[in-house]
Amino acid sequence: MGISVICTGTELLRGSTVNTNLAELGKELTARGAKLDAAFTVGDRAEDLYGALADALKRSDCVVFIGGLGPTADDLTLPCAARFFGLELHQDPELTKKVDEFWARLHQGRCPKNQYKQSMIPEGGRAIPNPNGSASGIEFSGVYDHKMRHVFLLPGPPSEFVPMVKNYLAERLTELVGATEHVRGFLAAGVGESFASRLVEQSLGGPDPALAYTANFEGTRVYVCDADPTEAERKFSVIHVALGDAALPEGEFSLAPYLVKELTRRKLTIGAAESCTGGLIAATLVDVPGASAAFMGGVVAYDNMVKHELLGVPAATLEQFGAVSPETAEAMARGVAAKLRTDCSVATTGIAGPAGGTPEKPVGLVYVAAYLNGKCEVREFRFRGGREAIRQRAVAKALLLALEMLKASEC
Q1: Domain boundaries, the chain
Q2: CATH architecture for the domain at 255-409
Q3: Tell me: the pLDDT tens digits for 322-375?
């Protein structure tokens, strides 16, 4: 009994909305030892929904629909799913009350009739609570191809979908399909996928289909999946040792949360001075719950005047070496630490493009600096890719350098 997902919405196909929901569901299931069989993305047309559901049921006995539960004409998920299984829809009094209450909370006057689409439920079905939106989730069962199938319908907005997955759906699906594997994983920080896989395979004596890798700007996420918990533990221990200092602790898959945790544990504070990253370091740190225990603030010093007047970068440094230079990066890191009175700081300055490069300082040249208790390190990088990729890579290298300095300070 497997799990397939059908993501609905023409906006997903057109690229105007990024499908983060699928990643969240996969992550939550993986943490519980379950996994997805397949995922389908279709537009808001009845024939597409029917076709995707038929294809999903060839592979899985549990199907999750994401999106299409709202009040508008293109919200077709519920009527199509019910009709596919030959189930009648009826208006649920409790859901009707909820729709009325949500409408009254945000609007004046009577609730329009079309809103009550969100109070319909198939016979034998039940509602999945959604405290963050007017459309409840729905769970029902139906027979298809002589087998009982389980169908889950959840709203598409991530602010509604993600809490419902965490609070109910992931656990319910795992209950139905069972935990088929034990999963252990971590981030190999700053290590590319190809290099990580070579090290891992050498340590295990060859390729292993139970291993999985996911590369991003921060490094490579390494997963060990095995039905035998003892074997999963053995493989995890071997590859964690093989990847050495690059391996974060088990369950740590991102640099910012781990950096905030380490700073908080040591009762240290951090600030950021950003030029080419334009506040992206600050945003990445602030995304971490509890970041206020360590992150004091940041300065976006895009113009040289700001670098000089707010961060104290000497005018002579800017004149002699330029804004994009190791000397300026170090002065920015030291300056923001002094300004914000932090124990630690990071700084970035570079040329993100697409214009502004020269033969001496091409697009992609970035200097990253990290400061900790009087010491400062600066590194030069020549990143490839577009403007956004260069900025993301610079953020990752800044956080990684700060972590490396923290680790070295404990030696």
Answers
A1: 3-177, 189-246, 255-409
A2: Alpha-Beta Complex (3.90)
A3: 999 999 999 999 999 999 999 999 999 999 999 999 999 999 999 999 999 999
Cα gap 61→2, rounded to integer Å: 6
- The model carries a pTM of 0.78
Average pLDDT for runs of 10 along the chain of length 411: 94 92 92 91 96 96 97 95 96 95 92 95 96 96 95 97 96 90 91 95 89 93 88 93 96 97 98 98 97 98 97 98 98 98 98 94 98 97 96 98 94 60
CA–CA distances in Å: residue 115 to residues 70, 122, 200, 273: 8, 17, 54, 48
Assigned superfamily of 3-177 = MoaB/Mog-like domain (3.40.980.10)
Residue 331 Cα distances to 316, 338, 397, 398, angstroms: 12, 10, 18, 15
**Burial per residue of 283-293, b for 16 or more beta-carbon CB atoms within 10 angstroms, e otherwise:** ebbbebeebee
